[in-house]
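In response to the reviewer comment on reproducibility (Comment 2.3), we provide here a single inverse folding case reported in full, input and output, so that an independent group could reproduce the run without further information from us. The structure tokens appear first.
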């Protein structure tokens, strides 16, 4: 419960800095949950494709830790994590789905 609250606070805080330009009406959690990328590949994709947002994620230990835990989890566990934090993650799902789609283009 404490971890969920910290993640919710981190993701909500991200919203203050990231703006609404990456919002998504229909969150694409399946693409995120089923990604085959490593955390290193996700970081490279995020840093390259969304440098401003990456700076915020990388500068927030709780948020970056949650993202790392998400990436290192099984697809089923990722889906559970995304669903548990759906209200906080949904506005950024398009960005994360984009990263989950392109991250395979980066070296492991």
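Designed residues, in position order:
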């Amino acid at each position: 419960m404490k971890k969920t609250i910290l993640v919710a606070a981190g993701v909500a805080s991200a919203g203050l800095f990231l703006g609404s330009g990456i919002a998504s009406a229909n969150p694409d959690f399946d693409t995120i949950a089923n990604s085959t990328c490593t955390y290193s590949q996700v970081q490279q994709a995020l840093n390259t494709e969304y440098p401003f947002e990456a700076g915020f994620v990388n500068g927030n230990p709780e948020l970056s830790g949650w993202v790392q835990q998400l990436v290192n989890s099984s697809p089923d566990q990722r889906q559970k994590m995304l669903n548990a934090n759906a209200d906080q993650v949904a506005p950024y799902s398009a960005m994360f789905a984009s990263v989950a789609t392109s991250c395979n283009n980066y070296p492991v």
